[in-house]
Amino acid sequence: MVMDIANLRLRFDGEEENLFHGLDIRVEEGEKVLLLGPSGSGKSTLLNIMGGLIPRVIEIPMKADRLQVSDDCAYVFQDPDSQFTMPTVGEELGFVLENKGVRQSEMKQKFTAVLEAVGLDVSFGKDIQELSGGMKQKLAIASALLQDSHTLFLDEPASMLDEESARHVWDTVESIWENRTVVIIEHRVEYIWDKMDRVILMDDSGGIVCQGTPEDMLTNHGKLLTAFGVWHPRSWENAPVLRRAKPSEQTLLEAQSLDVRRGEDSILKVDGLKIRKGEWVTIEGANGTGKTSLLLALMKLIPSAGGLYYRGKKIRKTKDIAGGVYPVFQNPELQFITNKVFDEVFINLEMHFDKTEAMRQTGNILERFGLSAVSHLHPLEISTGQKRRLSVATAAGGVPEIIMLDEPTFGLDQRQTFRMLELFSEMTGAGTSIVMITHDEEIKRRYPSRRLLIEDGRLAERTAVNDAPVNQEV
Amino acid sequence: MMLQSIRKYETFVDRSNPITKIGLAAVLFLTVVLIHNPNYLFHLSLLLLLAMIILSGVKLRYLAALIAVMLLLGSISSLYMIFYGEGTTTLYSFGIIHITEESFVRGIHVMMRGLAVSFFGALIIFTTRITDVFYSLMQQLSLKPKYAYSFMAAVRMVPIIISEYVVLRQARKVRRALIHKKYVTGMKGFKTTIITLLSQSIRRAYRLGIAMESKGFDDGPRTYYHRTSFSISDIYLLLFIGACIFMSFQLGQIITPFETTDAR
């Protein structure tokens, strides 16, 4: 069905400004639409209005002159962990059909059909918790299909997945979208860009900046897309050109025949690994190969056999290495300790400098990371991108010699990602070593001074990095 | 389910309705409270111990660990009775500790009560999936779906919260080296831990609530993927527990480890 909204106005509780100032949007039957915009532009809110979740489920005061929304729609959300109700695959799919009042005898046949449609080959009794992120999102798509609706709303369904799983998910979406109206919000758009009928760019306050076919947007509005910091297929043409990190000869961290184990199984073997001062190293490998485990093992947070040395000294416990080596985990929220963004950085410095100097440096770091404006807020109430930057900023005081980052650019928009990469370059320039896990091909290709790859349970050196002349100063 | 990984086989207890199990547990509790003859109780606990070992299908080494813990907790709970209970035949006396034969038997009796109920409780927990409990509460006792599904969703959240706690601990362990320890220890550390975990969970619950409603969930009439009903297995379980109680009364008159027949 056609969705048609005219002169939409909406205000969140406690906000002074309206989110939408008379927004008009119309989506035709069967149209495939991509919504782009910086965080806070109200994309998700708009999606929830188009599917009737606002105001039916989420009560937010809103007005519109015309409000023709979909009454026959299904959603796939971003976070796999907060969209399933039941513990197993069958029960979760069953939940959808139970809601519709489908007879029990017909259920299993329908499960088989949708699981086949999304290419998910698991038993009905399979625990959802044991599925990978990509499989969970396929299951979410399968349950959306079960709802048998003609409109699909996808709210960043692939943003938490690595590149390969993301591609699978998009292939799946494409294979089922014929005869359906599809509205998508997504940051990483390279796979789907050309397949959309229309791309809409929104601004910071929920207005539509411009819209058009994918080619039209790229040829005529490329500058605007970049100005609003959203990813588009040509984003990397504007990527920062950075000086290649020049590591010194000094080895800071060394691992010898490290064997990372979980219970009785070996997860990962590292024959030899040296991290030198001022290096920029990427760790690559498919999902589930043990990249995060390597990081935890290097910090002695999970058990491993073999030798681990920091500045020539053998490491037995986390506290032998913490401080000098500083990991930044994937989930920034869980790393915060204080009630204020400022304090979060400050407490890392107050033990190492006198108070005024520590305050001054904290101010500097927040400025560099673009967090000055939110320095008085609680770390848990800032945006996702800001949280990620803050978690990296806590490492930036100059005390740690090696910073290990687990997907630091994950979920960041183009502007934020490029800024982060510049900051990493500054840090390596100042002699700090950067070790980062990343799935981003462009980052791997352009910036590190060395690339490591985990394959078949073993860490290995990847080919030399000099095969990437693009955007590189020598 | 984690519990499934330590089990070897299933029995008729798995197939009986959760409501039967809960009902039987209540009946058993009452029976145990009303038994005053320690000889009866001795045999009943023994039979229920055997039932747990054989019918739960759990691997023996896990059961052994569980039984050890139960015995330990049971004996601790009996100590109060044993040390300070009243009685006429003194066995041992030291300071305020005054052990009499009567208090000793009473202590053991209390311990056996606890054990009997725990053995059956463990058997139920090992053989019942939490979702089946709610499915049958909805179908047999017409619990409102709103509550049942919310609870099942909450159960799903528990392992997620645990893994978040693990990461949070790891993060603090590495940040500790750079900061004053006052931030991560004591009340302050505890408070920030709780706030972080709670805020994550609340956000997740909110999102899940929206996801559930977007899938058309409401409190109205619905069908069920798992249809739970009473079956022959329920009769087996009923007969089995009845037999256990009956046997313990019979055996308690033949084999009498305790001299007294009334522990009160």
Structure write-up:
Chain A is α/β, with parallel strands linked by helices and about 475 residues long. Chain A has two domains: about 5-235, 3-Layer(aba) Sandwich (Rossmann fold), CATH 3.40.50.300; about 240-474, Rossmann fold, CATH 3.40.50. Chain A is built from 14 helices and 22 strands. Chain A has a six-stranded mixed sheet with strand order 6-7-8-3-9-10, with helices on both faces. In chain A, strand 20 and strand 21 form a beta hairpin. The termini of chain A are far apart. Residues about 465-474 of chain A have low confidence and may be disordered. With about 260 residues, chain B is mainly α. Chain B has two domains: about 5-130 and about 230-255, no CATH class; about 145-215, no CATH class. Chain B is about 70% helix and about 5% strand. Chain B has nine helices and two strands; from the N terminus they run H-H-H-H-E-E-H-H-H-H-H. Chain B has a two-stranded antiparallel sheet with strand order 1-2. The two termini of chain B are about 45 Å apart. At the A-B interface, helix 3 of A face helix 7 and helix 8 of B.
Tally of helical segments of chain A: 14
Order of helices and strands of chain B: HHHHEEHHHHH
The mean pLDDT of chain B is 89
Sequence of strands across the biggest β-sheet of chain A: 6-7-8-3-9-10
Which strand-content bin applies to the residues of chain A? 15-25%
Largest sheet descriptor of chain B: 2 strands, antiparallel
Overall tally of domains of chain B: 2
Number of domains of chain A: 2
CATH architecture of the largest domain in chain A: 3-Layer(aba) Sandwich
Query: How widely separated are the two ends of chain A?
Result: 56 Å
Q: What is the CATH topology classification name of the largest domain in chain A?
A: Rossmann fold
Radius of gyration computed on alpha carbons of chain A: 24 Å
Mean model confidence by pLDDT of chain A: 89
Low-pLDDT ranges of chain A? 467-474
Looking at the structure, what is the overall shape of chain A? globular
Rg of chain B to the nearest angstrom?
24 Å
* Quaternary state of the chains: heterodimer
What is the CATH domain class of the largest domain in chain A? Alpha Beta
Beta strand count of chain B: 2
Cα(first) to Cα(last) distance of chain B is 43 Å
Structural class of chain B: mainly alpha
